[in-house]
Amino acid sequence: MTMLNTNLQENNIPTISILGCGWLGFPLAKYFVNENFNINGSTTSESKLPLLGSKGIKPFLINFNPTCENIDLNFFQADILVLNIPPKLRHREGDFHLFQIDEILKCVKNSPIKKIIFISSSSIYVNNNSQAKENMLEDRQQAENKILFDAESKIKSLPNSEHLILRCAGLTGPDRILIRHFAGKKDLPNGLSPVNLIHRDDVIGIISQLIQNNNIWDNTLNVCAPIHPLKKEYYQDLARRYNFEMPYFSEKSANYKIINIEKLQALLNYTFIYPDPMLFQY
Question: What SS3 class is residue 221?
Fold first, then answer.
């Protein structure tokens, strides 16, 4: 490992390290740079380092594959860590992802970081035809996505630190228009199920507001747009608006869930930029 710099920034401006400057992490990092935070940003691609640097982000080449060997520990010289590395589908058994989490937390233990924001997913909940609330998951066996449950548990149990677990609904926004996956297909399932989606701009806004509120740490929060149009309506409207071939859905009943955000709204009183997925901008 490289030499660890034991001095944080001397200008009293908080430093945020964002592990994973991809589709969400990169615009999040740029947002915080514009808000005058000190930002460390990581990428697994050496070619992306100049881009991060050009946006005022201190760039780090970090790849937990899955160990922390040869990691520049100066990345962890920060006040807050945003952990944004979802499990990869090819590692469904979860061992790889959970080993990554263990290695990251080893680095955190030996750093000044005392606060972690973990980008989790609403896929952790089962489809049981009801509202999915944070307090529904008190046991691993209740989770649909047990890998995420285990990852969350590791972060929550880290001593001498505070956490925010953000269970984000389906992420969409610029360069991620979800109709691409459905255009022109026939007899798609679950047409009458409600969608659970969140626009990237709102995820960034919510994270920003959470960081500025010192009374909300040590919480698990659902993050989802408050309006839930039917899947059929949402995707067919996207096809019309953006000139994709029309998808067709089965109207057979299917299991669903609605991501409940009452806890987020009570704690944060956040005003959504895009409360209705039918009005999302891409």
Answer: strand
What single DSSP character describes residue 5?
A: P
Task: Report DSSP letters for 229-277, one per residue.
Answer: -BHHHHHHHHHHHHTPPPP-B-------EEE--HHHHHHH----S---G
Cα gap 277→226, rounded to integer Å? 9
Q: E-assigned strands of the chain?
A: 15-19, 38-43, 58-61, 80-83, 115-121, 130-132, 162-168, 170-172, 197-199, 219-223, 257-259
pTM summary value: 0.92
Task: State the pairing for strand pair 38-43/58-61.
Answer: parallel
CATH code assigned at 158? 3.40.50.720
Q: Which of 263, 216, 203, 5 is nearest to 115 (CA)?
A: 216
Question: 235-245 pLDDT, tens per residue?
Answer: 999 999 999 99
Tell me the C-alpha distance between 239 and 251, whole Å: 18
Domain holding 155, by residue range, is: 15-175+197-227+259-274
Q: Report the chain's C-alpha Rg in angstroms.
A: 19
How do the residues of the chain divide into helix, strand and coil, expressed in percent and rounded to 5? 35, 20, 45
pLDDT digits (tens, 9 = 90+) for 174-230: 999 999 999 999 999 999 999 999 999 999 999 999 998 888 999 999 999 999 999
Total count of domains within the chain:
1
Residues comprising the chain, all counted: 282
CB-CB contact of 121 with 168 (8 Å) = yes
